[in-house]
Protein: Cytochrome c554 and c-prime
Amino acid sequence: MIRRRLWLLAPFILFGPAELAPALDGVPSAALPATQEWVDEASCQSCHAEETTDWLNSHHQLAMQPATEDTVLGNFDQQSLTSDVETSRFFRRDGGFWINTPGADGKPADYQVAYTFGLEPLQQYLLQLTDGSLQSHGAAWDVPEQSWFHLYDGEAVDHQHRLHWSGAQQNADFMCVECHTTGFQRDYDPVANTYSSQWQALGVGCQSCHGPASGHLQWAESENKAATGKGFEANLMGTVSEPETCARCHSRRMPLDNGYSHGNQLLDDYLPVILSADLYEVDGKIRDEVFEYGSFQQSRMHAAGVVCSDCHNPHSAELRAPANAVCTQCHNPTGKATRAGIDASGLQAKNYDHPSHHHHAVGSQGSQCVSCHMPGKLYMTNDLRHDHSFTSPNPQQARQLEHSDACLGCHQQAEDQIVAAFGQWYADAQPRDGGYARDLHVVRQGGKGAAQALTRQLERTDLADIRRATLLSELPNYPSAAAQRAVVEALSSSSPQVRHTAAGLLGSLVTPNQQISLLTSLLDDPVRAVRLEAAWQLLQLAAESNVEPQVLRQLISEYEQSQRSMLERAESQFNLAGVYQLTGRLAEVEPALQQALRQDPTFHPARIMLAQWHEQAAGDPAAGMSLLREGTEQYPQDPSLQHAYGLALVRQSEYGQALRALQRAHELAPEQAEYGYVLAVALHGNGQVDAALELLRSQVQAQPTNRRARQALISYLRSAGNQVEADSLLTELAAQNPGDPLL
Structure:
């Protein structure tokens, strides 16, 4: 049995919001304990005047507002915007703000703006739909430039595209509103396919972070002030609790349920992403839009006990001090931290705000700490986000490892001079990451000594948890006895993120019997994300071992409940279809997949699984072929559909058509190792030996860690009598990983 991939839900990204029925401010959520209820946010203001003053008119307070004359910043006086594929018109009618734009059917229609989203440098707009939902339109208002722009201009985002404003990825109820309101409850009715979501208050208010305040009000009015947490469910103060509270919104993560519970660990409610190559650079700096938490987690600041509020006023979200002064709270000639609780052992008594350190004119951009240690990137076209890993520039390393660098970024026309000058200014400078960037670069490039570099980093005791989890994810490319030990030891880590990552890797490195024993012990893990991953992995193992369906259902009950809390998502319906299949509820498989496609026609894994279901379980291969063929016609640029269609044609012995489809999949996504490998096998099986060899050679050259392509190439070369080249490939593998079982 082939293990089916678990599809995680889309991470929190400001693609745009979805549906919301009119909010009922002041109505407590029935999902919360009766002892802790939401209260009117105004209740906080009488006692906390200073905090309220800071909060008023902040980006947090104004994160989401009803569309009115005072809140809408965009120009709706008969303006228009044309992207590469669509035109939208902005106008006023009946005292409201409207956008005429192509909808889900591709036909232009008028949609009323219900809420503004964000404040600056851009403002988005949520459109109210008839099913109670809000969707975030792709057009945004550039506040500094006072002009309209499209977030996805040039990306062919029309009504069939996954990022179109009318689709599931722009559904604000699920994607966005939780982090722009207080006390949000997403109320989706799967039978009617409607929303009646509610919130306690618009904007990020006191209770968004502190939790429902009814207990706190009771504490404030009582004579006994000894209550733990001053009547709140959770204490926000702490090197773990405060950053995790902020991370609920300021991280790239996948939800595990319908919202969060105050007092939970982060991984009880969300699964933050690790430092994957598509999201982060090899030295840990941001690449894609990941917000702040992942960067900060790996920083030396975090390791020293610095928390978000040491630099930011938590109520206004502004810096504690202007410009460099926020950094020189600690990094100054005294060598002392700004407060107790921060480990100051790494601080040097030095004037960092002097040209002798930064080598730029005082007051210039280059003299600013953030320019060198928190370089920014633009996301959503004009929104500058600063990196929070607090790395130090190293232009020589940047050129060697091909990652970005603050010095080289500013001085692009004089790279050689900058490298030389940096070497003179900081002659004794050494990377402060313990060789992490260099070793990870070797690991991802499949260079000589890659497996040893991986082991060397994993043996460190000072490695940040998110970096450890990231390194663990590379182990399947370097299987060995050492890799087995590393992943098994990681199951006992104090970090739930490390345990979660390790649980998902066991299938690649240890035997099924070992997996069952190790994963079973994780079913009682104190953190939900770890339990869910262990259950999913065990479910597949148990299914292969012919365990009774009722036992499997009990095993997967918590995971199934998690998916049922998000039934509006195609990913959840797809995951549930897998559960139904593995637990013997075969009559429920197809309806779940059909529902997934109704909710998101662009979620192609559901289409592929449904086609396979028709072919293999329902005994109707013609229906499966028709489904895939229609998919390739409707979405000709999607490689996964072409690949699945090609494999289906192979099973029907239509080899000529199959090769064309597999070739197309590889052309659309040459970076996908699976597509290249399958195409090479198909070519070889069709007698096109030279073409197969050439393709595999290019695969191995482009992806030296691709063991399957390397193994196939070695086998085909030997069959062709080319033992010399085959031995050379084995020699390269031995240099990468002397413990590889292939050797």
Q: What stands out?
A: DSSP finds 33 helices and 17 strands in the chain. The longest strand covers residues 108-117. Residues 1-6, 8-33 have pLDDT under 50 and may be disordered. Residues 528-544 form the longest helix (17 residues).
